[in-house]
Specification:
The protein is of the alpha+beta class. An 8-stranded mixed β-sheet has the order 13-7-6-10-11-12-3-18, with helices on both faces. A 6-stranded mixed β-sheet has the order 14-20-19-17-15-16. Strand 8 and strand 9 form a beta hairpin. Helix 11 packs across helix 16. Keywords: Acyltransferase, Fatty acid metabolism, Lipid metabolism, Membrane, Mitochondrion, Transferase, Transmembrane, Transmembrane helix, Transport. Its main location: mitochondrion. Its EC number is 2.3.1.21.
Length: 782
């Protein structure tokens, strides 16, 4: 086969005259260039490792210290207080070395040790400084003297021009909260969700746990915290993600959308050419660590960058008991049931956007049919994990299937060329956005590769989107990549007047290589079964994208309220109106202030929020409702800060539960805590690289955000994306099979709740009756 021949460097034939050896010049050239690229990467990594290893100092500072020590020696003073002489005495050198030379060598050794000691001291100081979090709990706009001094010291010890991973060694470890504090916060969080008898029972279980088993489990957890860099992350990845046996599609993967109002080009291949090139530019910057370390907005506080290591060339591999994450230079493209290997490097250089467009167009124009069983092969990654693990082991462990599967799993990322058109289309843009979201989340259930770290979808009309696997990283990491790609695509690379990528094409480029498969009938049957499972899951998904443009965070901030707390209170109000009850609410918060930190849970339904909702719905006077809202908002912000600083509830209880399982002991308290359903799961993804977009002059160049599926079968998943000062996008999911949930009705309740809250907080609002009137009028408008 021609494809197989391209994969080897030489061919040989045995004849009566001997062996006829035929060397392939092109293959050998590619091997040579591949080796050159590999060594360049190693050299860059070695250089970056040295720079990162000595940060916040710099390699050049070593020379400064050496020169300073030598200079003081020549002035007949001894800065080492006799240590240089001691080193010289024990220096294992030959007799041929002069005394003066021995003194210089000893001075250089002393200088190096002093330099390393200074680096260690600076890093230790920075680590201690980054462990200070009281600044986060201070009133906005009122910074204490302690915090001002702290900020100045952080700036001094942070160094200059850090690389992406420069701060990793200086980040503090995630602290382990006390069992007493965690149990207290837990009981406080469930109080609005239980009646008196239920709360009394839960209090008794918690008290028993705290006074007996809890201390034993805590001891093991503290031991792990001393040994490991993060006591949560590895267990979270293993038990929450990799040991999950249900489909990744909808249940775990999430998506991100294209620009809401703009499609830079209607040409599918051109859009793919620019953005694929942008992805590889980002990967190059990532490999060279040229990406600036992420920080808390408006501060000098760095965030952990460990998750960035697995963005590219990563795939989640299924196992019968647990999966794994494997990190593996090309991309794989899916189109009309066929898989193609797309090489993006030629003769050691990255292909231009125009050349990638040319190669993508070749795939689009290819009329070859799929191999037997190939068309819906991707359904294996969309169904249950155990059947996929068994099929992978049996049918993809050797031969042509293994080689083709390796191409997919080792690819930088996965690309789908979709024949559908998506975006805000036709006379019903809201319905088209809903279809767009569902397409990105699950597609046709077989035209995505859900195991890849991320897959990019290019639609027929030039729209695009991204689908990401969740185990290797959280949404902000993927969002950072997506923001860079969208901005680079439109504002740096751009398109010509006809909508094609700019530049010239080398028509001698080898064609994309079609992958071959030999799918057995038994494997085809498993593909069909996985597709049935995935299709049922996709059909049951109810999705609604609400683009709220009546006001945004600008107006909310003028009311002196946190935009996140405002949205969370609106969600509590909307859920209560929708279900006439409160529920356990999950809001994702990050713990990347700590080394290898990922997420923590903010339990947004509190006694304060439920008291406010009941007061508003009960017709209390305006001032009472405002006071209760302020109290609920401040409580939410306090919980969010606690979660960010390692004092959350759920990750600590989760790890205590894991320890109990290792020890083989049962805890009724932990068992009940871990079995509670999250009927309202929420998440906010903020815009991180605001400087890449001009939201004032070009507000149309804004992404619609992204979303995920519901966590509970009878609950809602809500992702919200606060854009500029005048827009909030909501992505709402639930299941058709639950008679109590409806994504569109919940979206309408969210819209009403947002209007009612802003009217309540507006200075002109006086009478409580007006809230009810505005609610009634808004219903009519809907």
């Amino acid at each position: 086969m021609a494809e197989a021949h391209q994969a080897v460097a030489f061919q040989f034939t045995v004849t009566p005259e001997g062996i006829d050896l035929q060397l392939s010049h092109q293959a050998l050239t590619e091997i040579y260039l591949s080796g050159v690229r590999s060594w360049k990467k190693r050299i860059i990594r070695l250089k970056n490792s040295v720079i990162t290893g000595v940060y916040p100092a710099s390699p050049s500072s070593w020379l400064f210290v050496v020169i300073a020590i030598l200079a003081t020696m020549y002035t007949r003073s001894d800065p080492s207080m006799g240590l240089i002489a001691k080193i010289q005495e024990h220096l294992p050198v030959s007799q041929s070395m002069s005394t003066q030379c021995q003194a210089v060598v000893s001075a250089v050794l002393f200088s190096t040790m002093l330099w390393l000691l200074l680096i260690f001291t600076m890093r230790l100081c920075l680590k201690q400084l980054l462990s200070y979090h009281r600044w986060m709990f201070e009133q906005h706009g009122k910074m204490s003297t302690t915090t001002k001094v702290w900020v100045a010291l952080v700036r001094i010890f942070s160094g200059r021009k850090p690389l992406l991973y420069s701060y990793q060694g200086s980040l503090p470890n995630l602290p382990v909260p006390t069992v007493k504090d965690t149990v207290k916060r837990y009981l406080e969080s469930v109080r609005p969700l239980t009646d008196d008898s239920q709360y009394e029972r839960m209090t008794q279980l918690a008290t028993e746990f705290e006074s007996s088993l809890g201390n034993r489990l805590q001891w093991y957890l503290k031991l792990k915290a001393l040994w490991a860099s993060n006591y949560v992350s590895d267990w979270w990845e293993e038990y929450v993600y990799l040991r999950g046996r249900s489909p990744l599609m909808v249940n775990s993967n999430y998506y991100g959308m294209d620009f809401l109002y703009v499609t830079p080009t209607p040409i599918q291949a051109a859009r793919a050419g620019n953005s694929i090139h942008a992805f590889f530019l980002y990967r190059r910057k990532l490999n060279r660590e040229e990406i600036k370390p992420s920080r808390i907005p408006g501060t000098v506080i760095p965030l952990c960058a460990a998750q960035c290591e697995r963005i590219f060339n990563t795939a989640r591999t299924p196992g019968e008991e647990t999966g794994s994450i494997n990190i593996f230079d090309s991309s794989v493209v899916y189109h009309r049931g066929r898989y193609f290997r797309l090489r993006v490097y030629q003769a050691g250089r990255l292909l231009s956007p125009r050349e990638i467009e040319f190669q993508i167009q070749r795939i689009l124009d290819d009329t070859s049919p799929p191999s037997k069983g190939e068309a819906k092969l991707g359904a294996l990654t969309a169904g249950d994990r155990i059947p996929w693990a068994q099929a992978r082991k049996k049918h993809f462990g050797s031969g042509v299937n293994k080689r083709s599967l390796d191409c997919i799993e080792r690819a930088a990322f996965f690309v789908t060329l979709d024949d559908d058109e998506q975006g805000m289309l036709g006379d019903d843009p809201e319905a088209s956005l809903d279809r767009y979201a569902k397409s990105l989340l699950h597609g046709k259930c077989y035209d995505r590769w859900f195991d890849k770290s991320f897959s990019v979808v290019y639609f027929k009309n030039g729209k695009t989107g991204i689908n990401a696997e969740h185990s290797w990283a959280d949404a902000p990491v993927v969002a950072h990549l997506w923001e860079y790609t969208l901005a680079t695509d439109c504002f740096q690379l751009g398109y010509n007047a006809e909508g094609h990528c700019k530049g010239e094409v080398d028509s001698s480029l080898p064609r994309p290589q079609k992958l071959n498969w030999e799918i057995a009938p038994e494997c085809e049957e498993q593909i069909s079964q996985s597709l049935t499972v995935a299709q049922a899951l996709a059909d049951d998904l109810d999705f609604h994208v609400l683009s709220f443009k009546d006001f945004g965070k600008g107006r909310v901030k003028r009311c002196r309220v946190s935009p996140d707390a405002f949205v969370q209170m609106a969600l509590q109000l909307a859920y209560y109106r929708n279900r006439r009850t409160f529920c356990l609410t999950y809001e994702a918060s990050m713990t990347r202030l700590f080394r290898e930190g990922r997420t923590e849970t903010v339990r947004s339904c509190t006694s304060e929020s439920s008291a406010f909702v009941r007061a508003l719905e009960g017709g209390e006077v305006t001032e009472v409702c405002r006071r209760l809202f302020r109290s609920a908002s401040e409580k939410h912000q306090q919980l969010y800060r606690l979660a960010m600083t390692g004092a959350g509830i759920d990750r600590h209880l989760f790890c205590l539960y894991v320890v109990s399982k290792y020890l083989g002991v049962e805890s009724p308290f932990l068992k009940e805590v871990l079995s509670e359903p999250w009927r309202l799961s929420t998440s906010q993804t903020p815009v991180q690289q605001v400087e890449l977009f001009d939201m004032v002059n070009h507000p149309e160049y804004i992404s619609c955000g992204g979303g995920f599926g519901p966590v509970a079968d009878d609950g809602y998943g809500v992702s919200y994306y606060v854009l500029g000062d005048s827009m909030i996008n909501f992505h709402i999911s639930c299941k058709h099979s639950c008679p109590d949930t409806d994504a569109h009705k919940f979206g309408a309740e969210i819209r009403k709740a947002l209007h009612d809250l802003i009217q309540l907080l507006s200075p002109s609002h006086r009478e409580p009756s007006k809230v009810g009137e505005s609610r009634h009028e808004f219903k009519k408008d809907l």
